[in-house]
Design goal:
The structure is a single chain. It contains 10 helices and 35 strands. It is globular. About 15% of the residues lie in helices and about 25% in strands. The chain has an 8-stranded mixed sheet, with helices on one face. The protein has a 7-stranded mixed sheet with strand order 3-35-34-33-17-18-19, with helices on one face. Strands 8, 9, 14, 15 and 16 form a 5-stranded antiparallel sheet that branches. By secondary structure, it is α+β, with helices and mostly antiparallel strands.
Length: about 625
């Protein structure tokens, strides 16, 4: 049952059949053909934009009053399973383990099943002898209506070879990782399957393909930053109980990089590198959910894993040398994206992608941890995907996923995506993106439809869902809160990067954000912005811009664009009801599965055509300068 039904009016465009170079001309041609106008989501109900809820940190959950305000105090209960715990151990005699299901592929009828066999090895690189995977033939025995078909696939391994002399005796060779693509499955049908190799078969699993007709209602599970703690298990089990048809996972899987190569059961310290066996444990823990429900994922910052290797993070296009060491190695080897049918571990094939869910939802998965500025490969691809790749009259829903959230009010990671949004937000607006899904911030926050830090009925709804249960715990303080441990100073005033606040960074020409984000930002990209007052309580914003009495870095209370925020673990569910309606609910782990802590109904109405045309004109002017 929804606790809240909220509001407003909106319309969007659908099929924008043009490339960047000829944006305006082809956009105008499309309008003449009647292809442009398309409705987008708006909140429905009498409380349009008037609903604003804040749940503050609960000391009983995180362990103490001080822990609610001091992020240096670890929240209680956020401990990864020990690698010897039965929850994360796996067989090493050749039996399959860590089974996962990926899909659908862009054609809507292809899926992939992946799993591991054997054990990992750790030691000096010259002692790590990989098995002959070319001679291996992993198989999936797929059964439907009593008829079984054997599908053959590919096996691979990867090595994490550290360049640091202190770590070179602790290089890592993965277990055998198996991928089998299942093409031309029947939509909306139940299949059972077993996986294995050389007569060593798994138990039987069951899944249902997504339908392509009569799809409604369609349940979509939402999660991110999941990890491998007891809290992760609660999220996993609640997600299973919610019975989604598909899961969208917005990055940060194993948190192996929270450990050093020498400290796999003691995080946040050590000589460097990452605890790659944590990836093995993660695959085991999440098998119950991911083996029976198809998953679509994006990469997060914890998938980069560049500690201890010679990795280059650059705002310019680069091709990583596969299969040598490179960022995203473990993730791309184990969880290739939908659409990949060979060369599975090659990160160059896995950086960003798009697929269609049940013929009705286009999901565009971007990567804010790879070169994204104008002129890059991702930029050209993303603009083409947003404006040219699908017909909104056929596929009415458009969801964009990338890991780091541009709109949230938590103290940690606040406003780290202004550069990224300066590149893409106008295109999101023009393309009529219905919803943007993010993780990274370990809390839940839902916005009203918005655009550039203001409510806008024609803008997207932004969902931060990075509350999956990981070892780092929930983020607890909002930027507009006062810090009782620091003489009631605002948390906004405590924000800093490079040892400086936003004004000082702006004056020094420094970028705002952690190095694993700013390394990908175009060199001249604006990363620090100030806004006028848009707070629920009114009044001047916090941390005013130098020489301004009206523009601030934060609001002094929950912003008007923020609908619901809660520093708790949980998961979300989208219930797509028709071409024009959906509901969004969020379930907190502490409440149990049957009670939603937040809910909203979203519907399509008209009213945004004028704003659409204005945006088209703006993009036309920009395209002429390119």
């Amino acid at each position: 049952m929804l606790k809240h039904i909220s509001s407003s009016n909106a319309i969007v465009l659908v099929l924008l059949s043009f490339s960047v170079a000829c944006l305006a001309k082809r956009g105008e041609e499309g309008a003449k053909r009647g292809e442009i106008v398309r409705k987008i989501i708006a909140e429905v109900g009498p409380s349009a934009f008037n609903y604003h809820n804040t749940t503050l940190c609960n000391p009983q959950i995180v362990g103490s009053y001080d822990a609610c305000f001091n992020s240096g105090i670890r929240a209680v209960g956020n401990v990864d399973y020990n690698l010897t715990d039965p929850m994360v151990t796996f067989p090493v005699g050749g039996e399959p383990w860590g089974v996962s299901l990926t899909g659908p592929y862009p054609d809507g009828v292809t899926y992939r099943i992946s799993w591991q066999t054997g054990n990992h090895s750790i030691g000096p690189l010259d002692t790590l002898v990989a098995p002959d995977t070319a001679s291996m033939t992993p198989v999936v025995i797929l059964t439907h209506n009593g008829k079984s078909i054997i599908h053959k696939g590919t096996a691979l391994t990867y090595k994490r070879a550290y360049t640091s002399a202190a770590l070179q005796s602790l290089d890592y060779l993965s277990p055998v990782i198996n991928h089998v693509v299942l093409p031309n499955l029947k939509p909306g049908k139940k299949y059972t399957y077993m996986v294995g190799m050389d007569s060593m078969l798994s138990k039987s699993y069951t899944f249902k393909t997504l339908p392509l007709i009569n799809i409604y209602p369609l349940r979509v599970g939402l999660t991110a930053d999941i990890g491998q703690t007891v809290n992760s298990t609660v999220t996993r089990d609640h997600l299973i109980a919610s019975k989604p048809h598909i899961i969208l996972n917005v990055g940060d899987f194993s948190y192996a990089d929270d450990y050093s190569v020498t400290t796999c059961d003691s995080p946040f310290g050590g000589p460097g590198g990452t605890c790659q066996p944590r990836w093995d444990a993660f695959a085991t823990l999440w098998e119950p959910a991911w083996s029976t429900t198809p998953v679509i994922s994006s990469a997060g910052n914890h998938e980069i894993e560049y500690s201890g290797i010679n990795a280059t993070l650059s705002p310019y296009d680069q091709v990583f040398s596969y299969p040598d060491n490179y960022p995203f190695l473990a993730w791309s080897s184990r969880y290739p994206v939908p659409g990949i049918v060979s060369d599975f571990g090659n990160i160059n094939n896995n950086l960003y992608y798009a697929t269609t869910v049940a013929g009705k939802i286009r999901v565009i998965v971007m990567n804010n941890y790879y070169a994204f500025g104008p002129g890059t490969m991702q930029y050209s691809w993303a603009i083409d995907e947003l404006l040219n790749k699908f017909d909104r009259s056929v596929t009415p829903w458009l969801i964009v996923m990338f890991h780091s959230p541009p709109y949230h009010t938590l103290f940690t990671h606040y406003k780290e995506m202004d550069c990224f949004m300066s590149v893409y937000e106008d295109y999101f607006y023009a393309a009529g993106v219905d919803m943007v899904l993010n993780g990274h911030v370990h809390a839940y926050e839902r916005t009203h439809p918005m655009y550039k830090y203001e409510e806008d009925t024609c803008g997207a709804v932004y969902i931060t869902i990075g509350d999956g249960g990981n070892i780092e715990g929930p983020y607890r303080a909002f930027v507009d809160q006062l810090d009782p441990l620091n003489n009631n100073a605002s948390f906004c005033s405590e924000l800093s990067y490079n040892g400086m606040g936003p004004n000082e960074n702006l004056a020094a020409g420094k970028m705002w954000g952690p190095s694993y984000q700013t390394a990908w930002n175009p060199p001249t990209c604006q990363t620090i912005t100030f806004q006028p007052s848009t707070s629920v309580n009114g009044g001047a914003p916090l941390v005013l811009m130098t020489n301004s009495s009206t523009l601030g870095f934060c609001q002094n209370s929950q912003p008007l664009w923020s609908a619901h925020r809660d520093p708790s673990f949980g998961h979300g569910i989208l219930e797509i009801l028709s071409d024009t309606e959906m509901t969004m609910t969020w379930n907190r782990n502490i409440d149990g599965i049957m009670s939603s802590a937040d809910g909203v109904k979203l519907s399509r109405v008209s009213g945004c055509d004028g704003k659409r045309k204005s945006m088209l004109k703006k993009l036309r002017r920009q395209s002429r300068k390119m």
